[in-house]
Amino acid sequence: MRQVRFLRALYRNLHVTFDDAFVSVDRVAPELERLGVRITVFACPAFADARRPLDIPELAHDAAALPDELRTMGWDELRALSRRSGFEIGSHTLSHAHLTRLDDAELDQELRASRERIADELGACRYLAYPFGEEDARVNEAARAAGYESAYGLPGALGRGNAFSLPRVGVYRKDNNARLLAKTFAPLHRAAAAVRR
Predict the structure, then answer these.
(1) Is the separation of the CB atoms in 148 and 130 below 8 Å?
(2) Can you name the residues that pair with 167 across neighbouring β-strands?
(3) Partners of 117 in the beta sheet?
(4) Which of 12, 15, 172, 173 is the most exposed place for a label (fewest CB within 10 A)?
(5) Measured between alpha carbons, how far is residue 54 from residues 3, 117, 194 in Å?
(6) Is 177 exposed, middle or buried (0-12, 13-18, 19+ CB in 10 A)?
(7) What residue spans of the chain are helical by DSSP H?
(8) Alpha carbon separation from 3 to 7, 52, 120, 187, 193 (Å, rounded)
(9) Phi, psi of 104 (to 5 degrees)
(10) The pTM is what?
(11) Domain limits at 44?
């Protein structure tokens, strides 16, 4: 019984995030919901409008070869997902732009219009994930000014304790079980220590 309580507490301390709002998130949603894990799916309104593949230049070849695999959720799918226990929809900007390359007006438009559109469609939008994990102090400040509560980057993010530069552990298709364990052991160990306190 003690182990079961420990595992439940550990799962409650995990926060699983998915960038790009691919339709494949639906395949894992029931199991994550059953485990009681918190999940945030980050969507781009420009893609949700058309339910089209994430056909950004960096993925053009993959989008042409595997359009179904890179298809993003539309608003109805995002709405249904947001109603599941533990799920929330956040912003991945309006169009998956390279934020650090934008001027101030473009940056504000990408961040503010995305948050407002998601909130209009789904009722709220508190979190942001930076496309490509690209951020700097100017982007962090723009995210705060656009009304987000916090924003996520990648490992090695700018600063500890900065709510607009929260690091994440990236898990990808090429990761086998050993890589997955290596990537998650330290964060899980820290979470387990916090649960035991």
Answers:
(1) no
(2) none
(3) none
(4) 173
(5) 41, 18, 38
(6) exposed
(7) 2-13, 25-35, 45-48, 60-65, 75-82, 104-122, 137-145, 177-196
(8) 6, 44, 42, 19, 14
(9) -60, -40
(10) 0.85
(11) 2-196
What tokens does 129 get? 């994930």
Contact 131, 92 (CB under 8 A): yes
Instruction: Report DSSP state, residue 75.
Output: H
What is the residue whose two structure tokens read 């608003």? 75
Count of domains forming the chain? 1
Amino acid at 128: L
Per-position pLDDT tens, the chain of length 197: 555 555 555 556 678 999 999 999 999 999 988 888 899 999 999 999 988 889 899 988 888 888 888 899 999 999 999 999 999 999 999 999 999 999 999 999 999 999 999 999 999 999 999 999 999 999 999 999 999 999 999 876 445 678 999 988 877 778 787 776 676 665 555 554 554 55
Q: Tokens for 151?
A: 């924003």
Task: Name the token pair of 100.
Answer: 């650090």
CATH of the domain at 122: 3.20.20.370
- For residue 15, CA distances in Å to 11, 38, 166, 184 come to 8, 5, 12, 12
State the DSSP code for 174.
T
Query: Distance between CA 168 and CA 52 in Å, rounded?
Result: 26
